[in-house]
Amino acid sequence: MAANSSCGTYELSAGGAFLYLGLEREDHMLISDVLRTKGHEVTTVVQTEIVASVVQLLAERHIGAVVVQDQWYKIVGIFSERDLIRALARGGNAVLGREVAEFMTSPVITCAGSDRIEMVLTRMTMNRVRHLPVLESGSLVGIVSIGDLVHHRLDEKQLEAGVLLDMSRLRR
Q1: Which structural domain range is residue 109 located in?
Q2: CATH number, domain containing residue 151
């Protein structure tokens, strides 16, 4: 019997032993595993974009953040729901007509596909951010949210529990 996950395959033999092919431990789950499941799409805006249009984009795409780039496509910030709330608290509705560069979070904290999920969760918690762009060789290849990482870990735990349950049934 085999069970697949985004990180490997569990196989149960008739004798009840199992072999985990792929990643051996939870702390070896990588950001690239999350992107393989979630996809690599990233919504970006230029730093001169007006806040109101960025808010509309967040709502239309059901996302919590956009990566902000300059005219040369270099990442210069990230604009999230939190940034919007802070901006509205400081400047009221008038901020909706201003450029997103005034309110984005900068510098941007990033991660790589080869980073471990556990490490990235710690980085997010320590820096009090919910979204991290994923860079490979300086290029933007994805974005992960704290929700994406928690969801991935829960899926892995659910798979492990299912495998252990199947093993216990085989031993009867």
Answers
A1: 2-170
A2: 3.10.580.10
pLDDT at 153: 74
Q: Could you read off the pLDDT of 18-32 as tens digits, one per residue?
A: 334 443 444 478 999
Q: How many domains does the chain have?
A: 1
Residue 57 and residue 78: Cα distance in Å, rounded?
A: 14
> Strand pairing of 8-12 and 2-5?
antiparallel
Interatomic CA distance for residues 100 and 87, integer angstroms: 10
Packed helices 81-91 and 51-61: angle between N→C axes, nearest 10 degrees: 140
pLDDT in tens, 105-114: 999 999 999 9
DSSP string, the chain: -EEEETTEEEEE-TTS-EEEEE--SGGG-BHHHHHHHH-----EEETTSBHHHHHHHHHHHT-SEEEEE-TTS-EEEEEEHHHHHHHHHHHGGGGGGSBGGGTSB-SPP-B-TTSBHHHHHHHHHHHT-SEEEEEETTEEEEEEEHHHHHHHHHHHHHHHHHHHHHHHHHT-
Asked if residue 104 lies in contact with residue 86, where contact means CB atoms within 8 angstroms, the answer is: no
